[in-house]
Amino acid sequence: MSVRGAKSPSNHDLTIPLNDDPSAAADHGHRVDVPAAASLEHRKPSRRRSTVGTDFEKDAKLKIDMDMKKKGLLNQGSFAPGFRFNAEMALRVAFGVLLASAIQTRESDYSPAANHSKKWVLFPDWYYLGGLSYCATAVIFTTKDNIGATVREVCQGFIGVGMALVYNIVLFSIFNMRTSDPAAPDPTDDFLRISRTFSSSAYWVNLHNFYVILPFIVLFTVAILLLPFETNTKKFALGNNLFFALTIINPTDPLNSSKLKLTGDPFYEEANILKNLQLYFLLGVAGSLLSLFITFVPYPIFGISKLRKEAKKASDEVLEILNLIVDSYCFKNKNVEHMDFLRVTLQRKFEAETARNLRMVALVEDVWWEQLLGIHALLKFNRSMVKNQVRLLGSLVSDLRSLSHAMKLEQYERLHIEYMKTLQREIYIIQLRSGDLLDEICEGVNNSVAHLELKSLHPLETQMENTLHRYRSIQNRTLRNKRASAADVAGNVPLNLFLFSLHSFCSTLIEFQASHNAKEYDDTTRARAFVVATLKNFFVGHTYTRLEIVSTFKATAAITMGTFLAVYVYAYSNTTPGAVAYVMGNHIGGSFSITVNRVGGVVAGSVVPSVFQFFISQVCDPQALNVFLTNFVLFLWVAVSMYFRFAGGYGNYAGLVSAFIAAGILLRQSDVCLPGGSDTFGSIAISSYSALAQTSVGIILFIIVEMMLSPESAGRMLRRNIQDTLKQLQKSFDVLFGHHMSSSDEIDDKTLEELSELLEKTIPKLIAEQEKLLGEANAEPALWRPPFSSQKYESVLQISKRLLSNNNLLFKLVKWFNFRVKQNKVNRKNAEDIRDGGDEDDNRYDDGDATSYQKWATASRQFQSAISDTFATLNTLFSDGFVYAEPEQTAIFMQIKEAFRLADRDCSGEIDSEEVMMMLQTIFAQSGVLNEDEIHKYVAEFMSIVDKDGSGKVSFEEFMEALENGLKLEVEVYQKMKPKAPIIAGKTATDRGSLGGALVSIDEDGAAPPRAATPPLSPSHAAAAPAGTPTTNYTAVLTPRNDEVILRKFSAVSTGTAGGFAPLSPMRRQHDVLNVDDFFLDDIARHMKVAYVEWLMEEGRFEKVSLEELLLLSCLVSGAEGIAINMTALQQIVVSS
User: Fold this and answer.
1) Are 777 and 794 in contact (CB under 8 A)?
2) Is CATH 1.20.58 the right assignment for the domain spanning 714-838+850-892+1082-1136?
3) Range in 347-361, 795-809, 910-924, 1112-1126 with the lowest mean pLDDT
């Protein structure tokens, strides 16, 4: 159905204000009558192609049509999204592994009994290093889901293996390995025989060779881990270095483990060793080329094509979300919380856009490697331009989140409906212009246009300015005619935030042309700059943190221990130290998440394939059947395992390991069917399961190392990251709000640059790290720590993102305001500003209006203090001191903070005696009685117990210590009853002295306080009222609305002739100092908004304030409400779990 998206030469839908007749809104309870087209707006195409109607069109029309793009929306697929592609990639890898397996085709006349018999068809007889399954392993490790990512893995593998190769070539050119001399009196001199082995076969260890090479293994490990290489490069380098070193220093003949390498045999001399190393490197090259081959055949999978498709979908989705939000805001007078489908739809679309943006960012990095092959020239693609486009789309999504937030704050009061009658058309035109401009940008980027001249840019810019001025005009007209109250204006403040969020969305589109045209797109220039920057960062710019150094030490220690086990237990197998090299992380959570997957992959890739290998190896005749069965099982197992790898999710690494282990087992060649072979069925069974055992030992090894050497928990690091994130968010809040709520001056450029660095780089980096740590902490074992609450930390992450989005919008607002000031578009000479009223030297306002300024100054100061205090409280709660805290303890701590903050009225961080008196008066007021003459004595008693240092003020630490030690307040209320004997008359009812006695007992231990005697009544205070005369008592009470102490009056009437009352049995009531029911941030923000609106309405100031200042302060107030909501939600989350 086409509602507003179709082009029409004359008439158009919904381009005029709805309910233009004022009586229509009144007839419908001040609600706008939305045409049917508006109610169906969410079903329209995301692209709105329409010219705007003229001012003479006064009728709305409904167009009914069939939209073929929406056909088949309810048709369900047979498979999950991405299943076909993931299955295809898994089959490609399995096919590549089969091709790689052909490299180890056996020589037909190979005999195990003959010395140095040629074993493989494609390799010379001098090659003995073995490891031919490495070619298949290279295919498994380097194949990714597009050509660019595969090229990246191939290059990183080349660099890693190449460094290991060059290092070992140099190393073994210098050091000659000792072998067994058959002419020596003792050919096994300096050899150690290991008889009790894991494989049940004895082997020899050359002590000289091992201890000469061991320091160089350690040196290489330290260097690789410290240098700023990519993670995969480090893995390839360490794994292959261990294989090279352990294989070469092994004194046993690699083709016959029962024999030793003999001195004088050219087969084991230095020259042949180096040739073997070089040939082994070529094996990896062949596997890497195969991985590239299978990404091109049967058709190429270009990352460039995938990136273009994702960018096209992202731009469509951005406009669809824009239309959904704006239409709901303008045409549906219903709060978002009451529109379930809209709320769920927006959440789903934002999550989808976030995931798509992450995919696009990853693809941008992948296509960089495709440029190395010149594919970008073939497809007419410019990565730098598309990278700018991806950033643009990400910024637009952030602006849309701000729009959504403004819509959630809107309560659709009367003014909103009245303003929308005028603004609907204007906003609709903005929607059209925005879609046209975004389409034009995407088309220019797809065509790799280096200099853009966007035709839709100026119309959108003009329309946005017109909309803002139109809004200001209707606002002034409405307020000038006295048609709105202060409450109406306060309810409409979120409209300012919505309009600026829409303005920010348009500005992001408008600014793209200038930033795009200012960049250099020449490949030669950019390549030269990239090389220089990379080398500079590698050798100069990298700084080593304590975490990197500690992690390097732990990994080196674990690899060294694994090397000892490999030599003395596992017959020079590099599996155990290699497991450490491939799995070792920076902390327990990171390592454990990989460990679980690796163990699962080892089990899956070894148990069942070993069973198949055991039976298949016994099929000696015909040999073709042996080959067919091996390849069939290999193809099937690798395909299934790699599907899990490409499908992603938590177990994707297990799929990779399973394919790798299975390939190593099934491609292991045995000579059990050959005469003179050393293999037996028993040795085949043991060797099949040895990978599982050695990997498990390696995993246990590095877990022990991590636990013993400066252990780092992912959960602990997550809490530290949250602390850092909160500190940076508070820093940005202090700059944005601390400056603009107390001063009308602009922020200087240097501060703006620092704030931009904070909001655009520092905090997003911390949040990305927080998201990664959250996943790792989920996999981390709790052990002795409390259970990890994934839901709690997920909520913290989401709120951190919302706080960042809120601050980002306000930062754009401040930049926009500064820009308008510099362009002389803001007249500030005769303008009035509520923030300037607090200056004692400013005598411009002596007309009795100081109350508005004072309310604003008080509310804004309280808000800043409360937010800062909340940040500090949350920072404390995420510290190590609260790791083991129960939810009840956390709640009590929060109550203490809130109680202290309520008592600390001047926000000084300390409570003085006057504030203590007001706190005690509040407690007395809750009991209904107060002896005012005694209040100062109670204050002194309270201070003597709580004020430990005698400073006359109570700090938060002293306050909390007193509460922890059992501080409690108890009020004894004495009931009055008419005595049998008359008493002496005294004061009249009009005296302020209380006729009833009350005594508060302050104690600091857990036991009940001793009963205090009632003070005797003096004659002047013990007079009885005349018979039938009401007696009156005044009690101080703290009103929660305005925080002022007032006098509350209550009465009692005596009917006897003597008229007096005498105390009887006391009623004792204990009062909780932590009588805090909720958090007050949202109340403070609301008071600030009310103070601003009252000031704005006084004396027609709304006409004296410029449009820019109106938007600035209104958005700051709405932003304060948003921050208060998010901070309150964050406190509730922390308290609840």
Assistant:
1) no
2) yes
3) 910-924
